[in-house]
Amino acid sequence: MxxxxxxxxxxxxxxxxxxxxAYVFPNDIAVHVSLxxxxxxxxxxxxxxxxxxxxxxxxxxxxxxxDIPRKAIWMRRVQSSWxxxxxxxxxxxxxxxxxxxxxxxxxxxxxxxxxxxxxxRKIFTETCRVLSGKVVFHVTELDTxxxxxxxxxxxxxxxxxxxxxxxxxxxxxNLAITLRLPLSFFLAxxxxxxxxxxxxxxxxxxxYPVAEGDCSLVGTWMGVWPALAAGLxxxxxxxxxxxxxDKQSWSLVHERALLSQITSCISPAKCPSLKEVxxxxxxLHPKYESRLRHFTKGSPQPPxxxxxxxxxxxxxxxxxxxxxxxxxxxxQADFPTLVEVVEMHLDRGTRAPLEEFEQWEKAxxxxxxxxxxxxxxIGIQL
Length: 382
Fold this sequence. Notes:
With 382 residues, the protein is of the alpha/beta class.
């Protein structure tokens, strides 16, 4: 057998070899880290659909066969704590042999990566270093974040080359967190931080009793961010997307209280390798937004190192128990409120361009600023 160390590849400088590996590998290799029966599971991210306006209707199982009612599947999907990654959750729950890659190209990418990794030990070590900068680890559960933090705290274990491709928090460079948490948690967090104020817009904030489970979630939230900051030794990019699971407006959430723990713990001062922090929140309803509670135009923004973006809520269908005691799936728009007017003229399964909804958003915001309620204009009562 030929000596692989004599390959012409190894006569090149290391930086040239790493540039070759980087060219061969695809960008943004995305995987999900989740807990399955107490153990870490790593599965492919199926790249959630992001085109057009998504309201949850695209989650309806048009092609489902078998005895499971379609409505039950749809209900499970709209309740998914993985949010827009609901397909990834279903994929992760399948037996390993039945999991899917998103496209044929993705399958080819996986085969190419595997083929390179098994050439020899030296190439394995070098390619792991390159891949560590390309792999994006997606986390969709607070429990998984806690596990990563605890995993990183085991300082006596050496960091191996393989750790770059595993869920070893000390080697994670790119972390994407998507959380869909109970609305009661956000309200409990606000109470915990001592700022139970009302909306400036005049709508009295509804007070909820703080349940024991919400207190536990608040404790986890407050503790996991400093633990991650201490353990994510290689973190370069952090993306955080947050939503609640209730049909009430996102504007009920005290955004400043929510982000204070993240930005105070995850910062360039505490994470030396950190280059980018991107936070994605749902769009605010102009009728309820407040400069004191929310990041509005002209109000103080998050720290300069954190980039804040807005998105339409990815699901507008929610579980609700009706008067007959039957659990049903109900639709409740947040903002813009007239999305139904746009979609009622479309064929089933057709998605309107995102630009069209952005135009509606701009028009509705102007109406609210002028003291007009869009629902009143078309004769709909709140």
